[in-house]
Amino acid sequence: MPDFCDPSTRFHPLRSDEDAPIEDLMTARVRAALTWGQLQGRLAHVPAQVAHQFCAALARLLLVEALTGSGFSGANSWFSAWFSGLQPVPDATAHVAAPPSLVADTLLAELSLSAWAPLADTAIQIRAAAHFHRGEGAPQGERGDAPAFAVAEAARLAEPPADDRADDWPLAALDRLHRAAAASPHFAPTERSYQLLPLPAGPVSFEQTRTATPLWALDLLAGALIARSAPATRPLPLPGAVRAEALRPELWSRERAIITAEAAGEAAQRLSDQLDAAHASVREVHEAMTVLRSTSRAPLLYRLLAGFGPLRPLQIEKALGVSKNGVRDLVAALVKAGLAERAAYEHHTIIRALPRARRATLAAEGESRSVETSSGATFAAFDAAMADVERVLARMETARE
After folding, report:
1. Which residue in 62, 390, 112, 69 sits closest to 239, CA to CA?
2. How far is it, in rounded angstroms, from Cα 126 to Cα 316?
C-alpha cells in the first residue's frame, strides 16, 4: 500500500501507531531549556551598545520571516531595497491576506511597544526609517486589517487558561500556545485542495496553493508569553519558534511537544548567534573609532546599519533625528574609519556597513573606502554576507549534532 504521508512533517499516524517515546521528548526539552537559559543569562547583562545592534538584527529577522511566511518568497534578497523604497515587492507566490507594507507596519508598531526598552527604542528608530510604498501589492477582496487581526488573535490564544497548573518545563507556555493554535482556524494549516485538469493523456490532479497562515504573530508573542512565568526573562520575539508542522491536527501529543521544543531551541540558538555577532561588531567599532569624540553618534549609526541593513541618508535622518549635515558628518566619520561605504542604487545614495571581511578585501586591493557602486551591488553584497552567516551557522549546528 503506498504511503500518502504529508512530507511536511516527520510525525504522522501512517508512520507510527503510537506516540513518540518519552525519552525523545525529554532529550529535546533539555537541549531547548539549556539553549534558552544561556541566551537569557547573557541578555541579563548585555551592554547597551550590544543590545542596540542585537535588537536591530532581531527586527530585520522578524520582518523578513514574516514577509516570507506571508507569501512573499525570497524576502531576504529584496528586503533592504524594498524597505528603502527603491524596489517594489516581487509578485506573491502564494495566497496572501495583506500587503507587505501592512505586515511590516504592524510588526514594527508592536515591537515599539515591547516591555524590553532596548527593543522598543530600536523598533521606533527603524519604524521612523521605513520608506517602502504603503499599500502596494494589496490583495483584492481581503481584510485590510488582517495583520492587526492576526496579532489580536495570537494574544487571545496566549491568554493562560483558568486551570493553568505549574510545570517544571520552563517553556511550557509554548506547548499551550501550540495546542491552542492547532485548534484555531486562523493559524492551523489549511486543508489541501486539488484541481482536476483534463489533459489529452487523461485527467491530472494538481494541488492548489495553500493560503499563508500568519505564524509570525505567534512568534511575536512567544517570548512575552514565556516571560509571564519567569519575570527576569527578556520578552523577546522568537522568529521560527512556531512551525506549521507542529500544528498538524493528526500529531500525537509528545510528537507535537518534540517539534515545539526543537523549534524553540533552534530559535534561541539563532538569537544567541546574533548576540555573538553584535558583541564582535561593537568591539570592532570601539577599536576603529577611538579617535572620534566620545559623544559622537557615528557608532550608533554603524550598529543600526550592521544590524538592520543598508539605509538611505534620508532614512538615517529620520531614524536618528539628525539634520542632513549631521548625517553627512556621521557617514564621513564611518567611511574614514573604514566601517562603512557609500554606494549608488538607481541614482540614489545608499550607506552600508562594511563587515570585517569586506574591509580586509578593500585594504588588500588598495581601493578607496568610499566606494561608488552601481545598480544593486550594495544590497547584493549585504545579502551575500547574510547568506554566508546562515551557511556558517548551519555548519555549526550540524557539528553540534
Report:
1. 62
2. 9
CATH code of domain 290-353:
1.10.10.10
What's the length of the chain? 401
CB 339 within 8 A of CB 288: yes
What are the distances in angstroms from CA 281 to CA 211, 238, 252, 300, 354? 39, 22, 44, 12, 10
Kindly report the pTM of this predicted structure: 0.82
What pLDDT tens digit does each residue of the chain (401 aa) get? 333 444 455 655 445 668 889 999 999 999 999 999 999 999 999 999 999 999 999 999 999 999 998 888 889 999 999 999 998 887 665 567 788 999 999 999 999 999 999 999 999 999 999 998 876 655 544 555 789 999 999 999 988 776 666 677 889 999 999 999 999 988 987 665 555 667 677 666 655 555 678 999 999 999 999 988 877 789 999 999 999 889 988 889 999 999 999 999 999 999 999 999 999 999 988 888 776 555 478 999 999 999 999 999 999 999 999 999 999 999 999 998 889 999 988 789 999 999 765 555 554 455 444 444 444 455 555 555 555 655 555 555 555 55
Query: What is the identity of the amino acid at 35?
Result: T
Please, which contacts does 378-385 make with residues 24 or more away whose CB atoms are closer than 8 Å? 378/310, 378/341, 378/343, 378/345, 378/350, 378/352, 379/78, 379/80, 379/81, 379/310, 379/345, 379/350, 381/352, 382/80, 382/309, 382/310, 382/352, 383/76, 383/77, 383/80, 385/355, 385/357, 385/358
